[in-house]
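does this look right to u?? glycine version
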Amino acid sequence: MNLAVIGSGGREHAICYKLKQSPKIKKLICIPGNAGTQKIAQNIKEDISNFEAIYQIIKAQKIDIVVVGPEHPLVQGIVDYLNKKKIRVFGPDRFASQLEGSKSFMKNLCKKNNIPTANFATFDNINEANNFIKKAKVPLVVKADGLASGKGVSICKSKQEALKNTKEILEGKFKSSNKVVLEEYLEGEELSYFAIVDDNSFLFFGSAQDHKRVGEKDTGPNTGGMGAYSPAPLLTNELETKIKKKIIEPTLKAMKNLGHPYKGFLYAGLMINKGEPYLIEYNIRMGDPECQVLMMRLETDLLEIIDHATKNKINNLKIEWNKKNSITIVLCAKGYPFDYIKDSEIKNLSNIIMDKNNQIFHAGTYEINNRTYSNSGRVLNITSSSESLIEARNMSLSNIDKINWSDGFCRRDIGWRAIENK
Ligand code: AMP
Ligand code: GLY
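got this back:
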């Protein structure tokens, strides 16, 4: 079969890595891809918000299935567009993508269906928001309603800070948002829970924990994710039953009732407090960098899984995972998550031996004359698997130490909670 993956991050490189292992793959293209996908797929440069141009590529390359990696094209309706053209594409339609594209949509859906989540209120008017803030408890969580690449959320310790951030959002700091969601702060430990969903059913698609803060011991500003590990030790059978019954099943039922059954990867960002799950957010795609660690553990053929899902037959499959612990450490350009260094050469990447337990997934890289350069904040995902998490982390760190890139930095403590709790 011929497959196309849309996107250019570490997540898409990891998806290509896994698809490439399928005996059924004939052609694999990545639009636009990066220096890593270029080695295992054909990169085709195109603006991924230009759906007509994407369609022309898909047609010319005789693609059987399109897998959409990032949220933006999904929220903008790429699935609706390609479906109309009779292209088989895996992902939610525009309406269902509101689960991530609009926090107020997601929160109202939770409220109507008794799905456990933080108490909240939505505002498009600063005076009303201010009255609410005056009466609210701190910390208070301030969120831009629309997509903001993980940067639209702030946990405010004072009312002044909450008011300032609310004002900025309502004054248009994020183009995607003219509303703000103010919500109660939830205590606990975070867990990323994944499902793969078709019209008839869903299957568990792995668990992971990620580190969103830029600094060691989870300090400093939020980022898109500095590293992740899988499986999540937090996830017990008992907790999983609660997540399915209280969160995933009622959400999928509600989407069906709204006339837009959810289809695609579904990523629930959860807070676990005293053994109870609360939904923090939905993402309508795989996580990045969580996907990288999950692809190292997935034993079942990914092409087979996606083929079944697009035919609404995932129930016929059993998805198998290896028992290893997998970790990924994100190597970032100095300055990230603020202004960061770009177009900086990364040397010695070829010193790293890649095998089934060690992979480097590229995120923001490009190649010229066999030299690799950075072009975004999160640049490389140094990923390893082993029997123990600490051993996997040591393997990743020792690979990082072989790379010569003085403009880069990473967190060396990914997985610290799980490692210290052992
Ligand atoms: P979101 O984009 O909604 O996932 O938020 C980004 C991050 O902010 C989450 O991964 C949490 O670490 C944190 N966060 C969001 N909402 C809350 C909340 N209500 N209570 C505590 N932390 C939160
Ligand atoms: N790792 C967080 C995300 O993919 O949104």
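The pocket of adenosine monophosphate (ligand 1) is lined by residues 118, 141, 143, 150, 153, 155, 183, 185-186, 190, 212, 222, 269, 280-281 (CB under 6 Å). idk if thats expected tbh
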